[in-house]
């Protein structure tokens, strides 16, 4: 863990899955109350997620978020009314490289998010039902991704083989260096987004929009795409179930998402500052 600064916090940016949300993708009463307490204290709050913006609406409404939020790991920063504060597509070359790399592995499901749609070629992938439940809408089955190559927001390799995803992550990072961000948002998901789709840059963009110094921001997360926020935030907090390498990059570690760790962090490390 790093050492945290002593500044009060004016803005909090939190990851969703594995952080605010319980394993069943619900928000606990304690978490809802903690976020309401932030609002009451005049502390800004928003979400940054690997999810598409379309799949964040319900949680944003439940949490009463009135600020722009960051979907696709920061590739799309969207106002509550749907206007974009920023949007970045994955370069075609990086999309093609990812699709070619994932194709030979039958245990890897390839999903493409483009044109406000979730696109798949195999409607029977074993991880599809869980993702459909999490996102709140069904995928569109296509014969080819070719016509969408120029408007891709994210490519996902989904697999229960976490070791394979780690290998694919390392290989694709080499192939797309400088072209795309490649990181595992969860052990079963390898995300490919635009190089500008970085949660740290999203935090900086939102802080500038709100007029808040980065030293007075806090970030909460648990996945491999969250340390980018940790590096920019004045205070960074990792969830208790995060991988050790993620925890080491945070200022503080809270409880797991089963233990309402995000609410604990808000109550003890942010509101009490």
TrEMBL record:
- The domain of life for this entry's organism is Bacteria
EC top class, as a word: hydrolase
Q: Which residues form a coiled coil?
A: none
Question: Which keywords does this Swiss-Prot/TrEMBL entry list?
Answer: Hydrolase
Q: Which InterPro entries match?
A: Cof (IPR000150), HAD-like_sf (IPR036412), HAD-SF_hydro_IIB (IPR006379), HAD_sf (IPR023214)
Has the keyword Hydrolase been applied to this entry?
yes
Q: What is its EC number?
A: 3.1.3.-
One MF annotation (Gene Ontology) recorded for this entry = hydrolase activity
Q: Which Pfam families match?
A: Hydrolase_3 (PF08282)
Protein name, entry field:
Cof-type HAD-IIB family hydrolase
What is the species of this protein?
Answer: Pseudomonas piscis
Upper lineage: Bacteria, Pseudomonadati, Pseudomonadota, Gammaproteobacteria, Pseudomonadales
């Amino acid at each position: 863990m790093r050492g945290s600064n002593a500044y009060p916090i004016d803005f909090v940016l939190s990851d969703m899955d594995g952080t605010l949300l319980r394993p069943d993708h619900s928000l606990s009463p304690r978490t809802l109350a903690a976020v309401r307490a932030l609002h009451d204290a005049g502390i800004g709050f928003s979400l940054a997620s690997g999810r598409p913006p379309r799949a964040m609406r319900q949680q944003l409404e439940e949490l009463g978020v009135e600020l722009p939020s960051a979907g696709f790991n920061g590739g799309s920063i969207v106002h509550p009314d749907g206007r974009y504060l920023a949007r970045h597509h994955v370069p075609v070359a990086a999309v093609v490289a990812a699709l070619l790399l994932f194709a030979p592995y039958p245990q890897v499901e390839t999903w493409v998010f483009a044109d406000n749609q979730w696109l798949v070629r195999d409607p029977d992938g074993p991880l599809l039902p869980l993702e459909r439940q999490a996102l709140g809408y069904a995928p569109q089955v296509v014969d080819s991704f070719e016509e969408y190559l120029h408007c891709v927001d994210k490519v996902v390799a989904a697999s229960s083989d976490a070791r394979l995803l780690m290998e694919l992550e390392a290989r694709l990072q080499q192939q797309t260096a400088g072209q795309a961000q490649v990181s595992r948002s969860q052990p079963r998901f390898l995300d490919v987004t635009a190089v500008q789709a970085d949660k740290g840059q999203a935090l900086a963009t939102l802080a500038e929009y709100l007029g808040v110094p980065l030293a007075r921001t806090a970030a909460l997360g648990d996945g491999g795409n969250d340390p980018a926020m940790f590096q920019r935030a004045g205070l960074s907090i990792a969830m208790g179930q995060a991988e050790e390498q993620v925890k080491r990059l945070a200022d503080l570690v809270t409880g797991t998402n089963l233990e309402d760790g995000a609410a604990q962090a808000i109550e003890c490390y942010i509101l009490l500052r």
